[in-house]
Design goal:
The chain is mainly beta. The protein is built from 4 helices and 33 strands. The protein has a domain of about 240 residues.
Amino acid sequence: MSNFTVALAGYTAYGDGTVHGADPTAAGDSVPPLGDYSSFTPYYVDSAAVGGGNGAIGSPWTPEEGLANALAGDVVYFRGGTYNLPLDLVTNTTAYYSVRGVLNPANSGTAAQPVAFVSFPSETVILNGLTDAGHLNGEHLFVLGNNDDKEYITFDGFTIQADSGVKMAGVRLSGTTLGTKARGLSILNCIIDGGSTAIPTLELDNRDGLRLEDTTGISIYQCLIKNCNHDANAGNTVGVKMYRNDYPTFDSVEVFGCSGGIYMKTFNAFVTIRNSFIHDNNTGVWGQTYGLNADAGGARTCNYGLLENNVIVNNSYANFGITHEDEGLALDWVIRNNTMYGAQFGIVAPPTGWDIYDNILDNMSNYNIWSYRDGEFASCDHNQFGLTSFNIIYHRYSAGSVTYANLASWQASGELVGGANPGAGSLASDPLFVNGSTQLNLLSDFALGGGSPCINADRAGTGNIGADTSTVWELV
């Protein structure tokens, strides 16, 4: 059993019995189910409000009043419409907006009584941030934030854009930088739009649709993040960027059209990514580690992750990978039941204790798996490597780099922990996707067709290799 599996026992489940990134440090907290606001005290915001209301449905607040007045146990419903949100550069400096949104809650909730900001049922709410020439990041604007430290906050059901979808919009959720980690944050059913204008090459590239810093147990659920682009595909312009987060969960997320999809940049542990459709980016899911002296806090690590039941396809450079430099660590990842297709690299792995099984890794132009530093897989079995190519490069200091060009040589390689052979139950054949579009570019294309060799071929012998596309989420 991996360390990740053991650590999952520390999660506190939400009231619906599921684990959507629950806070592992608050055992016994009774957190209301995600999306259930029946026990909350309701207030209302309206795009036509002029200020001075009391928050009742007939006397609604402005957005600024709603964020300022909401207390623990309140739900603030935004009525349908477009909310144009200018910067307040009279009251605030440009530096203020580099770590906060245009809209930020003034108060935290509690584990039992979060604060929720929610679109009114069946109404479309667009939060349209307005950039300013004097703003520090003129091509990018955080529209929503948690005021750099507010806890137990939920945002649910918003479309978030900047300059009517021309510029790059973002959301920033964080604890006190390099200090206390914020708990109980969630963003649900939201669309974050990176805009129709890519970040220009000459502009600083550190831009993100969703930026997560110093959080624990954050939940991202049924969200679409799109078009967060840099002209030169610079690595720091991404859909999601993460610094110093513990137990973040991405469940049912779609990310596309970004220079990078989900970027686990530094000090992230127990990351869960499941049931997600990550496609048509430069990199799909990417992590980074550095050596012991990279930061004052020591080595940047990316340990104990779970990548499960995702369709990660047509990302031009890599579908999934973690860099490994000096003594940085990427320990004990579990990668299972994913479908990866159409990149230069399927999995780029600096393994120590990794378990990779029940995945489809098809049509990679360079390597299905590239393990480029020391370490060993704990297991690597029951994977489908496809018919078009088979190429695995594996590097241990004791043996140097070895390339395995066919399944038989991989199965006889002795590359697992203790010298055991990988590849049991693995295949190198056509997975026989449905491919209804004939282009292999839709989620439905990656369902298994009748007669697929992946059916009932998983490790347990009763399920399929690859993702169950019927449970992978996309915005429709």
